[in-house]
Write a structure and sequence with these properties.
17% of the residues lie in helices and 42% in strands. By secondary structure, it is of the alpha+beta class. Strands 1-2-3-4-5-6-7 form a seven-stranded antiparallel beta sheet. A hairpin with a 4-residue loop joins β6 and β7 (77-78). Mean pLDDT is 77; it is low at 108-113. This is Dynein-like protein.
Amino acid sequence: MDYLDFSKVIYTGDKQNNEPHGTGIMRFESGCTYRGGFKCGQFDGDGELEFPEGKLIGKWDNGRQLEYRIIFRDELEFQEGKWDYITPSDRRYYNEITNRVPVAASREKPNDFKNESEMRVKETK
């Protein structure tokens, strides 16, 4: 029995000294999956970490991440310093900006909605 049995991680691929070493696929209990290179049980070289919201494509050196790209399920790619979505000045999601889903009415014309006190006045009449 090796350390992978205790960690609830499922690994298929190359091994050396009973550890992931070479190329393989590691599935975590959380549902995330890593496909790529390993060295002495750690991510090494090129790899792709897939998670429910998207994926991280990166390059590792003996477990230390050197480079990365994050791509969300809706194909939006995170670019540090160029992030224009869900900011204090614009609360819309990427799919709303690209018109893949309609913008919520409350974000389009907030003045069209009555506040609670105006609604109560109409109800009592």
